[in-house]
Design brief:
(3R)-hydroxyacyl-[acyl-carrier-protein] dehydratase activity; Mitochondrial_HTD2; Thiol Ester Dehydrase, Chain A; Acyl-CoA dehydrogenase; 10 strands; HotDog_dom_sf; single chain; 10-stranded antiparallel beta sheet; alpha+beta
């Protein structure tokens, strides 16, 4: 095990640079996917926080796709042997907004690879730092946390969503994560992880009760709740995944003010369980 750990730790410091033109079409399609009929994006407008995930997409050839639908490991990300991969959270700092329609660059570096042992068995945490540059400016800093783990026992899907009354939400929205929504988001982010569209794979191989809602999709819904309801740009957004959500039931995204300059948010799944928590600071 130590030899395997040493092998994946050798990926610390590995770098990747991707350039993109930040065209308007992906943003307009995401707005349609989120059923936002008011959004009007034009060249030069600020890219909403989390919408940078529509861009800088790694273009792995079909012959380099692994059995889970992700690119085979050992490229930019380390060759971790554990079968399940989860986008566990991120911190995004906005120094200056990215702008639609202008060339930009994302520079990534593997900051840390940490093997651990949890209640469910071995885990590997991978920390990836990204810097986004445009027009000579450092616009965004994003730190992502990715977790690899063993496929667990089959999980229960749960029932209806319900927000905990004690949260005192000022803003809320109900999301129906049907297979069409998941498919459209997978297509927009070029995410071919099979747990989001291949039900037999999700249930029989990774032992989920049904198709899994993307962690980034939940985070986009949380940040977008602030964009639509609060109407204020963000200087910081942080989220952490706490439990998976599935296509078997709707979920709620809820938020409330935290002082004059911030907000707290949750994605609430069946039984009032918090699936994702988040915090934000307004610019």
């Amino acid at each position: 095990m130590s030899d395997a750990n040493d092998h994946v730790k050798a990926w610390i410091g590995r770098e990747e640079t991707i350039r993109d033109s930040l065209g308007l079409t992906p943003a307009r399609l995401l707005a349609a996917t989120l059923d936002d009929r008011q959004a009007r994006f034009e060249t030069g407008d600020a890219v909403p926080v989390c919408w940078q995930w529509l861009y800088f997409l790694p273009a792995a050839p079909q012959g380099e796709i692994g059995p889970d639908g992700h690119p085979k490991r050992g490229g930019f990300l380390p060759p971790v042997e554990l079968p399940q991969r989860m986008f566990a959270g991120a911190e995004i700092t906005v120094h200056a907004p990215l702008r639609f329609g202008l060339p930009a660059e994302r520079r990534g570096i593997i900051r840390d690879v940490t093997p651990k042992t949890g209640k469910s068995g071995p885990l590997v945490f991978v920390t990836v730092d990204y810097e986004f540059h445009q027009d000579g400016r450092h616009c965004l800093t994003e730190r992502q946390s990715i977790v690899y783990k063993d496929a667990g026992r089959p999980q229960a899907a749960g029932g209806e969503a319900g927000a905990t009354p004690s949260f005192g939400a000022s803003w809320s929205r109900r999301i129906n994560p049907d297979p069409v929504l998941l498919f459209r988001f997978s297509a927009l982010t070029f995410n071919s992880h099979r747990i989001h569209y291949d039900r037999p794979y999700a249930t029989e191989v990774e032992h989920y009760p049904d198709l899994v809602v993307h962690g980034p999709l939940i985070a986009v819904c949380l940040a977008d709740l602030l964009r639509v309801e609060a109407g204020r740009p963000l200087s910081f957004f942080k989220f952490r995944a706490e439990a998976p959500l599935f296509v078997t039931a709707p979920f709620e995204v809820v938020g409330r003010a935290a002082g004059e300059a911030g907000a707290e948010l949750k994605a609430v799944g069946p039984g009032g369980v918090t699936a994702m928590s988040a915090s934000a600071i307004f610019a």
